[in-house]
Amino acid sequence: MKQRIFNVLLAIALVFCGTSVAFAQSKALAKDVKKTCKEWKKAGWSLYATASTMEYALTKYRTYVEADPDNHLVITGLAVGKNPKIGRDNAMMNGITSYASRAKAQIVGKMKSVMSSDASEQSGMEIDKFGAAYESGVNTKISGLVKVHFMLVREKGGVKEFQVYMTLDETAAKKAREEAAREAKKKAALNDLSEQVEEFIGEPVPADE
Asked: Which of 47, 87, 122, 170 could tie 54 with a disulfide, CB 3.0–4.6 Å?
């Protein structure tokens, strides 16, 4: 009987502890969101084309990202222009292009690092050829996978600036990178180095700094 009472009390304590932690995290998030939105508004940014508030949009976005940070990758894109639709599309494209560029830099850098000291100049040229084809493939394939959460806009220097906040599912992105690598291999004579590619492709692309 005492053991049952102890187990019930323990369960209640664990539930209370978990609730307290969740409340503390929620409170910290709300505080951080409020601070970020204050900084954005001070810099002239406003939320574009939605009846929602900036605070709500950022809270929803942060909650989504932080629910699975290893799989919900953050991508942002910035563009300038006059037309909001074109500005949004260009901002998205710039964010995706930046991701593809980082993916290329990562794979090319690692492939060259495993080349032997007596590797021919031709091998380096083939890796560069692979890298260019890989970047192009990643750019194309990732564009259909990003999820747009919200967009900010502001007037600066007589033009509008658009900043889009997106996420990318890493599981889907990895498959897209692998497919892009397979296609890029056909365009470059990598020889023995081709066996190294799959291992590198599986590593997440570094975040934009």
From this structure: 47
Strand-pairing partners, residue 159, are: 156
Region of 100 (left: φ > 0; alpha: ψ -120 to 50; beta: rest) is alpha
Query: Which residues are within 8 A (CB) of 124 and not within 5 positions of it... i.e. 6 or more apart?
Result: 112, 115
At 26 the pLDDT is 74
Q: Cβ distance 160 to 178 under 8 Å?
A: no
Residue 15: Cβ within 10 Å count: 10
Query: Is residue 66 pLDDT above 70, yes or no?
Result: yes
Q: Are 112 and 197 in contact (CB under 8 A)?
A: no
* Radius of gyration over every alpha carbon of the chain, rounded to an integer in angstroms: 23
| pTM for the predicted model, two decimal places | 0.81
- Dihedral sign, Cα of residue 31, residue 35, residue 36, residue 38: positive
pLDDT tens column, 78-93: 999 888 889 999 999 9
Residue type, 55: E
